[in-house]
Amino acid sequence: MKERPILFSGAMVRALLDGSKTQTRRIVKPQPREDRAHNHVKEHESIFTWWAGNLTLGVQHEARCPYGQPGDRLWVRETWRGVVQINPPGQPVEHGVARYVPDREHCRRVEYSATQAPDSEPWRPSIHMPRWASRILLEIVSVRVERLQDISEADCWAEGIEAVDGALDDLAIIHLAKRMGRSFEDGAPTYAALWESINGTGSWDANPWVWVVEFKRVAAC
User: Fold this and answer.
1) SS3 116
2) Of the candidates 188, 113, 181, which has an alpha carbon nearest to the alpha carbon of residue 149?
3) Is residue 29 pLDDT above 70, yes or no?
4) What is the pLDDT of residues 102-152, one digit of tens each?
5) Average pLDDT over residues 18-41
6) First and final C-alpha spacing in the chain
7) How far from 85 is each of 13, 26, 64, 92, 110, CA to CA, in Å?
8) Which of the 8 DSSP states describes residue 106?
9) I want to staple 54 with a disulfide (CB 3.0 to 4.6 A). Which of 33, 113, 134, 198 is the partner?
10) Are 160 and 12 in contact (CB under 8 A)?
11) Closest by alpha carbon to 66, among 210, 172, 182, 221?
């Protein structure tokens, strides 16, 4: 079993905490060349035929999901800050937010932007979160490769889209729903809008190959 870090936005952290997010999709890099890609990778969920950066047929060269295999674990990096004792020894205890916390020993508590009331104190970017400060640990259940637009309605909800209700542009969702021939109430247009808010305008239409990582939350250690 291996552990790897993975970044999530504040909304997705809240979805992980309430249990509504059990999947994540991440772009396969590099993307396979269109004229040589095949659409039915079934031999292994997390290993597909790969050669020279392209999905091909008949050449057995393994490419493994960079996020891990079933049974591996992902520890979540999120926007955070450490609270430390800032007064000199012998003085009444006073705590404050530190711009840098070297280790757990010096940290009195960890605060997380996703679930903390807004204030003027500084936050640390998620990329700088150390393992000891992480509060969410995920165990990978399955991994597969598919086209982004092949996502099912059930999987849209498993991506935690309820957590972004009201945070996305309704007009963008309506526009995507019309282009997809779907209802505004369906999960797919909302997920498409969420995807584009992260990956940029037009990224849904690009329909890239993605890693689909399904997971369950386990006790953090």
Assistant:
1) coil
2) 188
3) yes
4) 788 888 899 999 999 999 989 999 999 999 999 999 999 999 999 999 999
5) 78
6) 14
7) 27, 39, 44, 10, 13
8) G
9) 33
10) yes
11) 210
